[in-house]
Design goal:
Layout lengths: L7 H12 L13 E2 L2 E9 L2 H8 L1 H7 L3 E8 L1 H13 L7 E5 L2 H7 L7 H5 L11 H6 L1 E2 L2 E2 L2 E6 L1 E6 H7 L9 H11 L21 H10 L16 H17 L9 H9 L5 E5 L2 H5 L11 E5 L12 E6 L7 H11 L2 H11 L16 H6 L4 H10 L2 H4 L17 H16 L5 H22 L1
Helix pairs in contact: 1-4, 10-11, 11-19, 19-20
Pfam families: SBP_bac_1
Keywords: Signal
Protein name: Carbohydrate ABC transporter substrate-binding protein, CUT1 family
Length: 454
């Protein structure tokens, strides 16, 4: 579906240029020797599943006397910026970094990451074959894994079955976006404080653009054609943007222009939204008695479509080792601990089976306790991940990898700029056409650099 027409050397130079201006706040150097021995500095995204890992990290320290784990835990956008800047400039601040399948193959090609395959091969009990193939492949470069997955995800719709029943509505097994919009209009209830649907509007290439890009894909849109001509003012892209912005403005959550995954998750879990389209990992929180007031009230169906068979994304938060890490073996030991089969059971037994990191290991879905706890969403999650490829989710070929992102280094900047324009449109500050005209200019600049390189 796509072709790679940019060299690893060019990617490295461009990525360094993009992050060189990012300021790094100070922290202890990676692998520093403190009073208790070796300090391992881990940069991590502050999502619920990662916070659970931090809470249990003392068990790793107990198994490795003299090792002191130091976590730098940040919200997604901040974590991306800091980790990218440090890794690209070989800053050496971190021994282990949390990255995604957007970064892993690009950074591996740039020589920024340690090849983990020799470590994996040295520990057959780690069972690389147990990783879901699409997730494993997305973290590989030239047949070697450069990151190991902590959890994997696609996207789907969760909806309040009780509210649908009260309204006399039936959610189809494979909904279209047109149907979702119709349901949102019926279920929107200002007096009860319930939005018809919650969708991300928060700026960030990994925030609002993740769900929006799947809408654009299934509407037949693409960011660039095969000659790297920007397509952000095309009829298809325009239709997708107008649909997404209007749906949020008319039936979405209050303050949508600043709402991301966490904000929508809190709203849905507190009963303030009838539907929510987002990452499949949401289900664990929705069904957690300690976090949600709507436990057992939700159904889960595939990502809505328009012109395509499927439209869900493919994403994984994973752990990688910067090439400059000095204490590689202990860094690998920690990464293996946090992504091993035993860790899955540890989480389930300590925090409940709905808290287990999903979408990563096939064996997770064979654990009886997990299958029972996740009966509403385990199979939908696996099905969504399996179907998440460009052939099923796009109508036209594209020159870049990725579904909910454009897999080029410039997208961290380009995507964020475009998301800011769309967020302004959601906030009513500019029109959709104005947002796309400015976005087209940003994309044309990037496209021209690839045309010149051909």
């Amino acid at each position: 579906m796509f072709r790679r027409c940019f060299t690893s050397a060019r990617r490295g130079g461009l990525a360094v240029a993009l992050v060189a201006a990012l300021a790094l706040s100070g922290c202890a150097g990676a692998g520093a020797l403190g009073a208790g021995g070796q300090t391992l500095v881990v940069a991590i995204v502050s999502n619920p599943q990662m916070n659970d890992a931090i809470e249990l990290s003392h068990r790793f320290e107990a198994q490795h006397p003299g090792v002191d784990l130091k976590f730098v835990s940040l919200p997604e956008n901040q974590a991306r910026a800091k980790i990218t800047a440090s890794t690209a400039t070989e800053g050496g601040e971190f021994d282990v970094v949390m990255i995604s399948n957007f970064e892993a193959p690009q950074w591996a090609a740039n020589g920024w990451l340690e090849n983990l395959q020799p470590y994996i091969d040295a520990h057959p009990e780690y069972d690389e074959a147990d990783f879901i193939p699409s997730i494993r492949d997305s973290l590989s470069y030239e047949d070697s894994m450069y990151a190991v997955p902590f959890y994997g995800e696609s996207s789907f719709v969760t909806y309040r079955e009780d509210l649908f029943e009260q309204a006399g509505l039936t959610m189809p097994p494979n909904p279209t976006w047109e149907q979702i919009a119709e349901f949102a209009a019926v279920l929107d209830d200002d007096q009860a404080g319930i939005a018809g649907i919650c969708l991300r509007g928060k700026p960030g290439w990994g925030e609002s653009l993740a769900p929006f890009n799947t809408v654009a894909n299934t509407f037949g849109a693409r960011w660039f054609d095969m000659d790297w001509n920007a397509q952000l003012t095309s009829p298809e892209f325009t239709a997708a943007a107008e649909f997404y912005v209007n749906l949020i403005r008319e039936h979405g959550e209050v303050g949508a222009s600043s709402a991301g995954f966490s904000e929508c998750g809190n709203r849905y879990a507190q009963g303030q939204a009838a539907m929510w389209y987002d990452a499949t990992v949401m289900a664990g929180t929705n069904e957690s008695p300690s976090d949600s007031t709507v436990v057992g009230k939700s159904g889960y169906v595939p990502a809505p479509v328009a012109e395509t068979e499927s439209s869900g994304w493919l994403y994984t938060w994973s752990l990688a080792m910067p090439k400059v890490t000095e204490h590689k073996q202990i860094a690998w030991d920690f990464m293996r601990w946090m992504t091993d089969k035993d860790f899955v059971r540890m989480i389930g037994e300590e925090f409940g089976w709905n808290a287990v990191p999903p979408g990563c290991r096939l064996s997770t879905y064979e654990i009886p306790e997990y299958r029972e706890a996740a009966s509403a969403y385990a199979q939908p999650t696996l099905d969504a991940i399996k179907k998440a490829d460009q052939q099923r989710t796009m109508t036209e070929p594209v020159p870049y990898p990725g579904i909910q992102f454009v897999g080029i280094p410039e997208f961290q900047d380009l995507g964020t700029r475009v998301s800011q324009q769309l967020s302004a449109a959601i906030a009513g500050q500019i029109s959709v056409s104005e947002a796309l005209e400015q976005s087209q200019e940003y994309a044309e600049t990037v496209g021209k650099s690839y045309q010149e390189a051909q």
